[in-house]
Specification:
- It is built from 14 helices and 18 strands.
- By secondary structure, the chain is an alpha/beta fold.
- The strands form 4 sheets. Strands 6-5-4-3-7-1-8-9-2-10 form a 10-stranded mixed sheet. Strands 13-14-15-18 form a 4-stranded antiparallel sheet, with helices on one face. A two-stranded antiparallel ribbon has the order 11-12.
- Helix 6 packs parallel to helix 9 and helix 8 runs parallel beside helix 11.
């Protein structure tokens, strides 16, 4: 009888494990809020859109405004400063972003007082895979994915690579790694030329197909697209050539109109003014239009290719009978990227030169379109830099929701959500190190369209830019969080319910509210180790 009872308990345990969902987090890189079809874009993204419409779509979700801080928060459930990546990950060939032991929250790699999702889900019975961009520590092998809980890894350790030929890039640490070994010669996984977006997807599928069928899996699929360098398959680019000759002014208006038709924004929402450094399209010289059209076409093709690959992934899941019990999350790591020259940087016309570039891009002129209807970009904590498309799709547990989900949320809510649905624990200590406590909330109420049970404001800081969101109120500032302390004069205040575009600064008329929120932000910044902050190096005057 005792033997039968033990067998029954083992059966229940295995049954419970089998019911745990598979989890896929899809993170895209430097994509703007309005680029995909389900958030207002004209770029063809039918596979992404089908997942969005088949699950719960958030209208107000926030990342950490930059590549590696977002990845740090996404993987650990902590604000990035607590993980050791208060600003940026240390570059493979420089110690610039490692501020030393005096500033432990600005070391440029994940510390051991945080746990990655892979480290948390593995004890709960999960196989853990990473395909794509790591960008959370590279200097020492102890900082790499396999040493932070992942069973398998194929991708780039650094923040960016060339898309067609990462193996011939002479810059240190900008190649592809498989497991713990560098890939000296990349091989195409398709019938086209090698391309990282294709390879990351195919290796992710390979990991799943070859994995232990008795265990649920966690796949972190972290694309480098559409981060610079802007490079894409020519047949994908050809789909978009000529479509952008209407110019950025008209395209911004069209995207906002689609967003309103989708119900994402109400009819009263105003489009932010064109970025003041971007010229009106009507002033562009005729001989420049083909180049500018191509810059946006290449960018669009990169996103189109992501969508094609997500379609391939979904097809594989369905073929393996895994689709119904696989939870898929989708988001971007920051707002659109306006780095470099306003009208774009680097070679774009010459195909061979374009595909050997390391940082060519489309500039603020087109990034302003990607941010529609918001202002500002990656780096900043205004809506254009920190608001991301976000949806969760899980056929077994999330029914398709017709309406947009309106409760606001942010990255630190992902880990608590997955710990709940994956029946995993968050320990006080890991490998002898005390872990920082989680402060995010579970998003499971959104599965059935219930409001989230948030009792505290949301906070963010990156590169001296910062925000606090409390209900409909958003305190936000550029350059407000200096090393010597916050500058209250740089804070702005917006009512997001009536002004999501952040056009009417209410700071002068709501000064008491601003002071209260500024005080609360500073208290958070001290608790979550934004401070002490290393001083910025002053640029030498020429």
């Amino acid at each position: 009888m005792k033997f039968i009872s033990i067998c029954f308990l083992l059966f229940l345990t295995s049954l419970q494990a089998a019911e745990k969902p598979n989890v896929i987090i899809i993170l895209v890189d430097d994509m703007g809020f309005s680029d995909i079809g389900s958030y207002g874009g004209e770029i063809e993204t039918p596979n992404i859109d089908a997942l969005a419409y088949g699950g719960v779509r958030y209208s107000q979700f926030y990342n950490a405004s930059r590549c590696c801080p977002t990845r740090a928060s996404l993987m650990t459930g902590l604000h990035p400063h607590l993980t050791g990546i208060g600003h940026m990950t240390a570059s493979p060939d420089s110690n610039k972003h490692d501020k030393g032991e005096e500033f432990p929250n600005y070391r440029g790699f994940l510390n051991r007082h945080c746990a990655t999702l892979a480290e948390l889900l593995k004890p709960a019975g999960y196989s853990t895979y990473l395909a794509g961009k790591w960008h959370l520590g590279q200097k020492e092998k102890s900082q790499w994915p396999l040493q932070r809980g992942f069973d398998k890894f194929y991708g780039c350790l650094a923040g960016s690579t060339r898309f067609f030929s990462p193996d011939t890039d002479e810059r240190q640490g900008r190649g592809i790694t498989y497991g713990n070994e560098p890939v000296t010669k990349v091989k195409s996984t398709t019938d086209r030329a090698y391309y990282t977006t294709d390879a990351f997807t195919d290796y992710g599928i390979k990991f799943i197909e070859e994995g232990d069928k008795d265990k649920p899996f966690f796949l972190y699929l972290a694309y480098t697209a559409p981060h610079w360098p802007h490079q894409a398959h020519e047949e994908d680019i050809d789909k978009y050539r000529g479509k952008y000759k209407m110019g950025w002014d008209k395209l911004r208006q069209q995207r906002l109109q689609r967003q309103k038709e989708l119900g994402l924004f109400d009819q009263e929402l105003k489009l932010s003014p064109r970025d003041e450094k971007v010229p009106a399209w009507s002033t562009i010289e005729a001989d420049k239009i083909d180049e500018l059209d191509l810059r946006m076409a290449v960018y669009a093709a990169m996103i189109d290719c992501i969508d094609q690959n997500i379609g391939k992934l979904v097809t594989s899941l369905k073929k393996q009978g895994l689709y119904e019990n696989t939870m898929i999350m989708f988001m971007t790591d920051n707002g659109a990227c306006a780095e470099g020259a306003t009208l774009g940087h680097g070679n774009i016309i010459d195909i061979n030169k374009r595909n050997l570039e390391t940082n060519n891009n489309y500039g603020a002129a087109w990034a302003n379109v990607s941010s529609t209807p918001f202002r500002l970009y990656k780096h900043w904590t205004h809506e254009g830099g920190s608001a991301t498309p976000f949806f969760m799709h899980w056929p077994k547990e999330i029914k398709a929701q017709k309406d947009w989900y309106r409760s606001s949320a942010q990255l630190i809510d992902i880990v608590p959500t997955l710990l709940e649905v994956c029946q995993a624990n968050y320990p006080e200590n890991l490998h002898g190190n005390k872990l920082h406590a989680l402060n995010g909330i579970s998003l499971t109420d959104s599965f059935t369209a219930k409001p989230l049970k948030r009792t505290k404001p949301m906070f963010s800081e990156h590169e001296n830019n910062a925000f606090m969101i409390d209900g409909n109120w958003k305190l936000v500032g550029k350059g407000v969080a200096a090393a010597k302390g916050p500058n209250i004069k740089k804070w702005e205040l917006y009512d997001l319910k009536n002004d999501r575009s952040e056009l009417k600064n209410l700071a002068p008329e709501k000064s008491e509210r601003l002071k209260e929120m500024a005080k609360a932000w500073h208290a958070w910044a001290l608790k979550d180790k934004v401070y002490p902050k290393p001083p910025s190096k002053k640029r030498k005057k020429k």
